[in-house]
Structures
1.
Amino acid sequence: MAKHKIGWLPGDGIGIEVCAAARVVLDRLGFDAQYVEGDIGWECWRQEGDAFPQRTVDLLKRVDAAMFGAITSKPVKAAEAELIPELQGKGLVYRSPIVRMRQLFDLYVCLRPCKAYPGNPINFKEGIDLVVFRENTEDLYAGVEFNPVPQELADTLGHLSKSFAPFQKLPADEYAISCKINTRRGSERIARAAFEFARAHGRKKVTIVHKANVVRATDGLFLEAARSVAKEFLDIQVNDANIDAICMWLLKNPFDYDVLVAPNLYGDIISDLCAQMVGGLGFGCSGNIGAHLAVFEPTHGSAPKYAGQNKVNPLATILAAKMMLDWLGESDMAVRLEEAVVAVIAEGNVRTYDMGGANTTMEMAEAVASKL
Ligand code: IPM
Ligand code: MG
């Protein structure tokens, strides 16, 4: 019997190619796994009206960890228009499968390391080494949204909040409401994960990202909860910054930052910013981590325009596989894999188009595998 049981969910578009590339590397490492392939993505949506079918949910209950590629997402109306005719007009609503997966399995930590590997020609600056902890289940991603807005909700908000007055008389379909919901428990546990990581990895500082000066209820709670957790970690420096300001400061002084912790949406935003500083989405790797399951993925999407061309950079997915090895306790393999990536980037002989080269997805994977 294989040592690890791994859910394998390539999804759509370039997800298929980058997962195949990561598999070449995992196989060369000698990673002892049984892979269980699962259906997820746009074709499931079109044919079955569910991009994340129950059989795939059940599959994830039976594995130790999973690798996920990418999935096409489209706005509600565009998604409905692509359903097979039999499923149209049934009120099916497309919701991002990865967001649902994070919530269903309570994968509350979104861990996104952003390291500038030496010699990568598209590093913003050499030496950048940031780690983003993004809360992964709440906030504006809660999925509590209204468009049109029910009268009952408008009446209640009118009673409860003076600030609602400018909206109250609007026709129901002339505005929309998306609820930002943040809990103390959710805020504390992502903060704790960030501080524990900092301590375990010899990191010096954690920066709490928020907009508590304006979004006082939810971000106020997040900031307060994170600060209270910080008191348990007196060996780690703590500071905080507004989301807008930190976007400037991160670019200006990336070496002033170390570990960043943020509510879901701000974490989504800064993780793209940080990824761009270390070579862009071709290098953005991500772990969605809960108490019982962790799902690893490249941060980039399905990039339909590049699908099937064997062109995109698989390193984000290969680095996500490295994160999976760490999480499974296969530290030696994780180290070897990262060293192989470091060597390929430093040598500069094999580069995908984003790095200014002309090598294919599979050539990059083979180059990494050849170092193992
Ligand atoms: C990410 C992505 C997703 C998100 C999308 C694809 C739903 O941008 O993982 O950062 O918003 O979380
Ligand atoms: Mg994102």
2.
Amino acid sequence: MTVTIVGSQLGDEGKGALVDIWGGDADVVVRYQGGDNAGHTVVQDGTEYKLSLVPSGAVRGKVGILGNGCVVNPETLFDELDTLREKGLDPDVRIARRAHAILPYHRVLDGIEEEVKSDSDLAAGTTKRGIGPTYEDKAGRRGIRIGDMLDPEVLRERLEYVVPQKRAVAEEIYGLDVDESDHADAFDVDALFETYNEYGRRFREESMTVNCGDFLGQHIDDGDELLFEGAQGTSIDIDHGIYPYVTSSNPTAGGAAVGTGVGPTVIGQGEVVGIVKAYLSRVGTGPLPTELDGDDTEEELADFIREKGGEFGTVTGRPRRIGWLDMPMLRHAARANGFTGIAVNHIDVLAGLDEVKVGHAYELDGEEIETMPATTERWGECEPVLKSFEPWDEVDWAAVAEEGYEAIPEAAREYLEYVSEEVGAPIYAIGVGPGREETVVRANPFDSQ
Ligand code: GDP
Ligand code: IMO
Ligand code: MG
């Protein structure tokens, strides 16, 4: 009845491609956390769609939901919807009334705080989309929810309470002369009211908002199939990730229950599929034990993988850092999410190397450990214990995708089987290229229930 797709590593594992494939069998595709910090690439019939907020399933004509656990920037939402319509699609997207809205001051404060932190080791390298500040306000009970935007009186009351506080933070803590800056409107109650009231009107007029738990519960009662689309990844989860170099939500599978109003017993009866990239890539800051940056040879290898794998941020265009696959990180993800299956992407990118390695374990204080330490400082002290694999040659990956698993080069299959065994979950799919058809699908999680 439900399939939850979760990033196993640091985000950008290629979740969009799998959501797109399996989303074909779902009736509803639901995002349960994050906002327009996500960047999911979906390629269909040669057209590439880059989505940061709209659920990937919208490209497939499914009902797309932004759950209560999401933070929604209405400007991004309407821009993406308009772009999809220009490309000839007719997306049906509904937003939870309990989801929190990102306001312009959240973006401004995200940018300022990152700049302040850049003098220390604490900057997370955020996407500057206002994600963290919006979740802060949610927890601080001063957020503005999508449902609040539907009623002009409530919206104004909320703005009148919170905006002076935000202005004071910007001016008195960060020393910004708000009225003389480019951001005066971001801290002005009347300007904000006008814009957000208009978004609210559009939400109402287009019947775009739902009581998420009720809406999904109805679909479940009707026997519909639900796909929960995680954004980001386990190691940048605010609870289970490498704090403070994390995002401010819970990409892990538990987030699917909290972030939608569908109970954990329902989600737990379904499948939880971890999406794994065959190596690591990372846009943000912080340690990375298996990073390829030790010497010129490693840096050349990282450049090669970066170019071949197109490892530049979907949202920000930043070059991503590159490392070998990190097994302790995957074991941690398997436990935190309870994977019933995995998909391993990008094995084509590693083809043609002289040697393929994985970080099998870590060495910490002279001892070998197999999972991640709980503090990021200790994680940064870990030295990877590398394991070498036979490399595999470049092949015609489109032909491999057509022929199936046995057509994958034997050395690559050994690599895959090692990963599956260590993670303790079967491989449902293998990504051999960016397109939807460049995937070897071994199982459909909707069929295995
Ligand atoms: P997401 O955020 O997890 O959905 O992933 P992104 O879309 O940000 O990044 C994944 C990138 O890799 C996209 O450009 C995909 O088109 C591409 N991609 C996904 N799977 C594969 C694969 O198996 N091989 C290759 N070469 N590219 C892939
Ligand atoms: P998808 O869904 C990779 C990273 C940022 C930064 C940290 C906090 O495409 O996998 P934020 O803006 O969320 O406050 O930034 O999290 N980050 C991602 N990295 N993929 C993503 O999403 C990410 N979303 C946020 O780079 O280190
Ligand atoms: Mg991405």
3.
Amino acid sequence: MPTPEMHLGLISAMEQEQTGLLALLQSPRRETCGMREYVTGMLGGTRCTCVLSRWGKVAAAATATMLIERFGVTHILFTGVAGAASRGVAVGDIVIASSLVQHDMDASPFFPRFEIPLLGVAQFAADATLSERLARAAQRFVEQDAPTLLSADERSAFSMREARVHHGIIASGDQFIGSQARLDMLREQLPGLLAVEMEGAAVAQVCHEFGLPFGVVRTISDDANEHAPVDFMRFVERVASRYTLGIVTRFCMPG
Ligand code: SAH
């Protein structure tokens, strides 16, 4: 159960992913700083501050830092879309991060590949308790809500099968992965990799440095290769935004 003293920072990278959440926030209070609008309110019994980071690691890190330092959040959840990086992971599935790595970090030969210089960490572990609760929320969403959320036509338009929830490694970098060769290289370098995106591991580093529990949940939007869905934005609007809303709602209101 979310504790009453929890103040959850909810970061999304794209506007479509956040719209539904904002509509549900009770007694919203808005504050703009650093070119971002932070909206604080209640979602069920949980105090939340929602914000749009925009894409990429710097944007995500700046947003997470502001949430912690200025808004005093106690936990951070990042919600968004990602490319599949494992054969068992398909478009429409949900991936919850067990740990995150910055795949474009390479200060070799001074430091091992992927290790953050002078921090001594390559993979940041997501908070186990938060991730377990996220996994339960995602599983309930997939079983009870998702089947009625999309029409059969929508499912077939996006070639979606029944969604599965996965738990594993997510890699982030300032790069949209849309090449099978690039993806294969990452999979070889990072055994157990499930998904690729552009923000999660940056938020993970900030939370590590501030000692804050965090979780990352991603709906798979594409295969991170040349066949990535033709209509990415439509997928985000029709599918991913509703998945994010459903999972976060179940997370904050577990009843
Ligand atoms: N193809 C899209 C680009 C989406 S990338 C377009 O043309 O608009 C933007 C967001 O999706 C980022 O927040 C990133 O985290 C996530 N994302 C989804 N699929 C990704 C992929 N294959 N590689 C990297 N990031 C991806």
4.
Amino acid sequence: MKIAVVGAGAMGSLFGSMLAEAGNEVWLHDVWVEHVQAINKDGLAIERGGKIRTLSISATTDPEQIGQAELIIIFVKSTHTAAAAESARKLAGSDGMVMTLQNGMGNADILAKFIDPERVLAGTTSHGATMLGPGRIRHAGVGATTIGAWAETKQGAERALKLSAFFTKLGIESEAVDDVRSVLWNKLLINIGLNAITALTAIKNGQILDLEITRELSRKAVEEAMKIAGRMNIKVGEDTVDKVYAVADATAANRSSMGQDVDNKRQTEIGTINGYIVREAKRLGMQAPVNETLTALVETLQFHYK
Ligand code: NAD
């Protein structure tokens, strides 16, 4: 398959490398010039479990160089999804599929404005990756990938099924689901319970559990979001707060992705996580004061980075 990755940072480079190593024609597209140059000059170095392998793979800052692709995978941070969608539209031509495995909500909706919604796929992945420097990534965690059609049609479901079977055959364990919105929401709720709080307070995930007052803040943010999900008829687990605490415990020593963004003075994905809840609450005439406060604080923090 001819595959283009738009946003070839940690995760885009990881998925691009796994698909290229399995024999596909893969192009990495990124706007980060040094990274693209390093990949083209010395290959992409992937560290996993202390071992480094180097892969020869095509990278470009110019999507026009790629031509048309059968599958376009979007892995920019959600702040750049609209720009990535513009590139994806050209890369997809009249029949390419476009898939997002980004975190947060709203990415697939943006893609569906640029590309025929029938060809938009969304999902989540439990793989983890870290950027080490230009041309260098770490494969930090291995896990399952879930894929579903954004337009819940029969044709979309068939595409998701085919793609997940294709990925699994290549060694990227994947599953197709009919109700991908609920899968994205369940991941969103975990991020709502952990990300902004850890980003604002400089704590690690596990430290959310140390104080009753922090646990309560996390619980309130999640329960508020669950009410919005309920109004939108999205199925979310009743035990979601317990799951948030379990994830905090299981990843106790980790800094959340938003925490890492704040540590490195990068724009965060707040707008598609807690900020998404605030927008949806307004649209539905509901209240979301906890998420509104968390969003305002993270936005203030990132606006004033020095
Ligand atoms: P990253 O910052 O490492 O990579 C994003 C890349 O996109 C950067 O290299 C950037 O230069 C590039 N980019 C920005 N604008 C672009 C544009 N218009 N066109 C092309 N490239 C552009 O981020 P990441 O950690 O790989 O995360 C990507 C997405 O995956 C996020 O939504 C994140 O939440 C999600 N995610 C990350 C992980 C993880 O372990 N890192 C795990 C699951 C999901």
